[in-house]
Amino acid sequence: MSSTEQGTSSAAPAEPTTAPESAAAPEVPESFYYVHGKDKVVHKVSAGALQHSALIHGMISNLGYTEEQAKANPFPFENIDGDILQMVVDWCNQHKGKPTPPEDTNLPKQKEKLFDLVLAVNYLEIKELLTYCCKQVAMMVKGKSPEEIREIWMIPTDAEDEAAEKEAKKRAGKEAAGETAAAAGDAK
Amino acid sequence: MKFVHNFLTWLETAFDREYSNESCCYKPLKLLDLSQNVFENILRQMDFISVFDLSLLSEEMRLKIKQINFQFDCLEINNFGSKNWIKFRNSSEEVPAMTFNFDTNYYDWGWKIKIGEKKVEMRGRRYPTNEYCFQTKDFESDLKNLLDYFSSLFHFQSGFAVIELDSKSQKLRELIAHPIFNNRLVLQLSGVLYSYTGLDSLIQGNFENLEGFVADFEFGNHFDYKEILKFKHCSFNYAKSFTRRDLLTLEFQNLKIRNHRLTGGDVNSFIKSWLAGNHKNLEHLGISKNFGLEDIEDVSHGLETVKWDETKRDGHFLIDSIRTTNAIDCRQGLDVQRADGTIGTMVFKNDHFLFLVWKNPFVGRIDE
Q1: For residue B53, is it within any domain?
Q2: Cβ atoms within 10 Å, residue A87
Q3: If you write DSSP's letter for every residue of B21-50 in order, what string do you get?
Q4: Is residue B267 helix, strand or coil?
Q5: Ranges for the Sdz-33 F-box domain (chain B) (predicted)?
Q6: C-beta atoms of A118 and B38 within 8 A
Q7: Quick one: pLDDT at residue B95?
Q8: Are B181 and B212 in contact (CB under 8 A)?
Q9: How far is residue B148 CA from its own chain's centroid?
Q10: Which residue has the higher pLDDT, A106 or B284?
């Protein structure tokens, strides 16, 4: 991907677009920001592409960073896997400045990553991409029986929920008893 | 029967195979661990039948589904004849959002699902049409349980129920005040009326909570229309004994009449009576042209009518009935105006005549 820089961020300035002579106002050069995920690989993304993310857009809107400052201060998203962040950046670049179509054919194809992608996209508040991803999740159970849905989405039965709740209470009780005993020991 | 079963099983297997190839690649996800907004986003993009399937899986799932607040325009119940059904209807969609079919036929296959406190024998579901099929020996005995379950999960604006005139459907009569109907139930009584001793003998329930009444039976001569017409919506499907005198003297808000003996002259007199300041509550009168009203040209005889003036009223009249919402095109209608300024519009359709009263000329809306 052209806008992604691996490891070091050699921030090349945005290539100025050659404006036609007839154009009245000169075009403002596009500003870029830098993000990285858990793997610390830095991705260079234009402000236009980042507008899809309400979270990042809110963060950068009042920063007024220069290119050097942006490069020196990449946004860290330690809770997002590097490959997932790459997918998100790709999608944002592909849809930069464009209205999102009702059916998106540019959705990430790696289905095994779908759930991590949903979590990341929800965190980054990318509304349209979240809707597309949720549709993919919804399609997983199309035509399935209730028990098959239970298996696919790991939905515990009421009995399992009750057992888990009992277990949690038991554990909490033990921990509380341990703390009381420790406190009593300290007092002695 | 076995062949049909085998064929259906084969179909289901083939259908599943198509999707199992896709779902095998997914990393497992605990749906309940997702935040409520993501959970809702997913459920709102699922077939509604799968949402209902999900509700059967656990208490926690039901709580999360309830938080989404799925809304439907109308809950329809048919408890007349051998086939019973319940429909979740949305007027904005052409197909019903969800249908539950019930019959007494015996099938040697099926499985039990727990709905509320009871286990119900299910025979299958049809995904493209969002239909569940149940086998039940006594639809009525399951009804309260089903309504309790549905109302614990979903919200309905109103209700429409078809029941039998005779002693059957007694349980549904007892459920008229069920919160699922939101105090907006229209009850249709179908069958043959042998004797009439008052509204209580027909409904045998808490009819104070009813919003409307559809009489789908032939009236006797001693039928007390006054008692019935106090409901906001009334519809008489067989009204041969409904006379000109009834039309002129009784008060009603929204009335539809079919299979009657009223003439164009009778309706003309009614409109004159309205112009004179009577029928103050009137919002809508609909009269069919089948088996009556043949001399429709007499309706406007002697009335000062004007064509539609867009500065005076809307072109369409929104009829918000319990089951559907229709915008009646009134641009070709003929208007009359009362001394107090209220406009009434006569609309001549192929098979019926409408007289619509514009309470607010630029919010074209009445309840049918």
Answers
A1: yes
A2: 22
A3: HHHTTSPP--GGGS-HHHHHHHHHTS-HHH
A4: helix
A5: 228-286
A6: yes
A7: 61
A8: no
A9: 19
A10: B284
pLDDT over 60 at A46, yes or no: yes
CB-neighbour burial class of residue B298 (10 A; exposed 0-12, middle 13-18, buried 19+) = middle
What separation, in Å, do the N-terminal and C-terminal C-alpha atoms of chain A show?
Answer: 65
Among the listed residues B181, B173, B83, B59, the one whose alpha carbon sits nearest the alpha carbon of residue B134? B83
| Smallest CA–CA distance from B48 into chain A, residue | A142
Between CA B152 and CA B154, with CA B153 as vertex, the angle to 5 degrees is 110
Q: pLDDT (tens digit, 9 = 90+) per residue, B329-344?
A: 999 999 999 999 999 9
Measure the CA–CA gap between B136 and B60, rounded to whole angstroms: 28
A62 touches chain B (CB under 8 A): no
pLDDT of residue B29: 79
Domain-located, residue B306: no
Q: For B151, which DSSP code?
A: H
Instruction: Tell me the chain A residues in contact with residue B47 when contact means C-beta distances shorter than 8 Å.
Output: 142
Please give the ipTM for the structure prediction.
Answer: 0.78
In percent, the amount of chain A with pLDDT more than 90 equals: 40
In this structure, is residue B278 part of a structural domain? no
Inform me whether the C-beta atom of residue A122 falls under 8 Å from chain B C-beta atoms.
yes
Q: Which domain holds residue B55?
A: 32-69
Contact B61 A161 (CB under 8 A): no
CB-based contact (8 Å) between A136 and chain B?
Answer: no
The SS3 assignment for B328 reads strand
pTM for the complete prediction?
Answer: 0.80
Nearest to B60 among A116, A152, A161 (CB): A161
A115 touches chain B (CB under 8 A): yes
In a domain, B203, yes or no: no
Residue ranges in chain B whose pLDDT is less than 50 = 1-25, 367-368
Q: Output the CATH code of domain A32-155.
A: 3.30.710.10
